[in-house]
Amino acid sequence: MKKLTSLMLGSGLALALPTLASAVTLEGHFSGYADHAGAPGVYAPGMVYTARLVLNTTQTNPWYPWNPTKEYTAVLQATVSTYVGGFLQSVDFANGATAKIYEDSTTPANYAVPGTFSDGTLVLSGGSNDMYGQRVDIFGIPWNVYGTIVFVSGAGIGNLASQCALGLVMNDFINFQIGTYPPTYEEAYDAEWKCPDVTATDNANWGSVKALYR
Questions:
Q1: Which of 83, 116, 170, 174 has the fewest Cβ atoms within 10 Å of its own Cβ atom?
Q2: Dihedral of CA 172/176/180/181: which sign?
Q3: Residue 120 DSSP label
Q4: Residue 63 belongs to what domain range?
């Protein structure tokens, strides 16, 4: 992924150039709960980690043309490769983690019925080969999980490819110390999946461009 670089502008330039074409960071927000064997926040090699998520359709600049009359759910599943406990904790997930997003207009997602997260049309299917997490065991700090999700198939893959040039940057957290969870789930999962490189450009004024760097 290309990193955003700093933009240095004098006041004269800002007035002289009212518009320009710029790449837009597209976002999608998912939240839900995670299920795995063992204690919350503790992992072991070979453990299967499953997160069931619901799309928050109120986000701006979506990287997929979500239909506001539909429900979108995601199932993220990964196998733990290595885990380090103690004060500075880390977890690595094996290659081949899967991410699937479904579109549904009939059965609302219900954490007590896992099948309700995958009973719609599979619109995007892919996975991650670089998913990992880090945590400092102090003051209830949650796990920060990172990675790149690349979707390669699904009924809506053409809609994604027209907007997202590369894989999605997964920037999320797994919080197992604050809040309550549905039965059998150990952790809350809140994610911001971004697509910082897009094929198209949008016209924007200098004010909106500078806001990207704040």
A1: 83
A2: positive
A3: S
A4: 26-211
